[in-house]
Design goal:
This protein is of the alpha/beta class. The protein has two domains: about 1-110 and about 250-315, 3-Layer(bba) Sandwich (FAD/NAD(P)-binding domain), CATH 3.50.50; about 115-250, FAD/NAD(P)-binding domain (3-Layer(bba) Sandwich). The chain has helices at about 10-20, 25-30, 50, 120-125, 130-140, 160-175, 195-210, 255, 295-315, 355-375, and strands spanning about 1-5, 35-40, 40-45, 65, 75-80, 80-85, 90-95, 100, 105, 110, 145-150, 180-185, 215, 220-225, 230, 235-240, 240-245, 250, 280-285, 325-335, 335-345. Helix 1 packs parallel to helix 9.
Length: about 375
């Protein structure tokens, strides 16, 4: 049996290692061939970009050689997929190679898409790429005061990022001793400051205590960079001196261009994780259309569930469990404090008061991530 994983991010890596261990005997006996195709020979720790943008991490801390994170049973190739031939159970790659599969897992991730909002790319800072995070850091270090507007597009990667960057900006300007010259102004597209109701209930008094202003029902329409004005679809106009955005995201171009899902989001069954209409094609991580958080932990828990199922399909011909929608997110809350949100399809999150202990656990996880990618945590 040929199992093909497309994508070497967190979801693909954890799934590959999970399967390599579960199917070690089958791989050794050449009954299973496990292949991973990636666009890069480097593995990129994307959550670290939030820290890079405020000078708390360095770029070289965000990368490892992908091959070093993989179990020996995985046949790894840097050869990006350019075409999915699902009816033929094949993919074609940049090198011109055709790979056959019996089971395909698409874990290609997502990308920030700023072009949808006129003026956003030219006038806003964002931290979803290394280049963007370093540019944002430079702007923050030279900023001497004024209104900083944080504006949010949906859907976006990491549901807690808008709150976290706002708290972290508060600390950043306080450490620079210019907080009294800065007004932090946060906007959010719906009628509360976060999509998850209990998270919004927790965060609102935290904002109030720190003097962070906010406006809800604010969906970006356009940015007038010459006059430094952000306009919303609802008719609001906000003047800014520095504009920080959590941009809307799309699935990767290879998925979107082939029409596998609207805006590159592959439609999947929320329990089995298979692509609608395809019993042998699965998707995990950011690239799915599931209405749950696009977060590393989502990819992690999906990969564990799918790894167990694919292994059982090989061994006994059927799946043995469902993915329950489990997500776990740390939330940096400023002042070296953090809390967390743990939830699934049936149980909403219930954030507790932030503590220094949880903050330092999140900081530690920035290093423990590499063991997590190996599937050891």
């Amino acid at each position: 049996m040929k199992i093909l994983i497309v994508g070497g991010g967190m979801g693909g890596t954890i799934l590959g290692n999970n399967l390599a261990r579960r199917l070690a005997q089958e791989i050794k006996a050449s009954k299973v061939q496990l292949t991973m195709l990636s666009a890069s020979d480097k593995h990129f720790y994307q959550p670290g970009l939030l820290y890079l943008a405020v000078g708390a991490m360095m770029p070289d801390e965000l990368y490892r050689d992908q091959a070093s994170l993989l179990e020996p049973g995985i046949d790894f190739h840097v050869d990006p997929v350019e075409e999915f031939l699902l009816d033929d159970n094949q993919v074609k790659t940049q090198s011109g190679t055709t790979y056959d599969y019996d089971i395909l897992v698409i874990a290609t991730g997502s990308r920030p898409y700023m072009e949808e909002i006129p003026g956003l790319a030219e006038n806003a800072e964002m931290f979803y790429t290394e280049e963007g995070a370093l540019k944002m850091l430079a702007r923050l270090r030279e900023f001497e005061g004024g209104r900083v507007v944080i504006t949010v597009g949906v859907p976006h990667k990491c549901p807690m990022a808008p709150l976290e960057i706002t708290f972290m900006l508060h600390d950043f300007f306080k450490e620079r001793d210019i907080l009294d010259k800065v007004e932090l102004y946060y906007t959010y597209p719906i009628g509360r400051i976060h999509s998850l109701e209990n998270v919004a209930k927790w965060a609102t008094p935290e904002f109030d205590q720190l003097g962070i202003k906010y406006e809800t029902f604010f969906n970006m329409k356009e940015i007038d960079g010459d006059n430094k004005i952000l306009r919303s679809e609802e008719g609001s106009e906000l003047e800014y001196d520095l504009l920080v955005t959590i941009p809307a995201h799309k699935g990767m171009e290879v998925v979107e261009n082939q029409g596998l899902g609207q805006n590159g989001w592959i439609p999947i069954d929320r329990l089995r994780l298979n692509m609608e209409g395809r019993d042998n094609v699965f998707a995990i991580g950011d690239t799915t259309n599931l209405p749950i958080s696009k977060a590393g932990s989502t990819a992690h828990f999906e990969a564990e569930a799918l790894g167990e199922n694919i292994a059982s399909m090989v061994k006994i011909g059927q799946s043995v469990r469902d993915y329950d929608g489990k997500v776990f997110c740390f939330i940096e809350a400023g002042k070296n404090r953090a809390t967390y949100a743990s939830f699934d399809y049936l149980n909403p999150p219930d954030p507790k008061p932030p503590t220094r202990t949880v903050h330092w656990f999140k900081v530690a996880y920035n290093q423990l991530y590499w063991a997590s990618a190996r599937g050891l945590l």
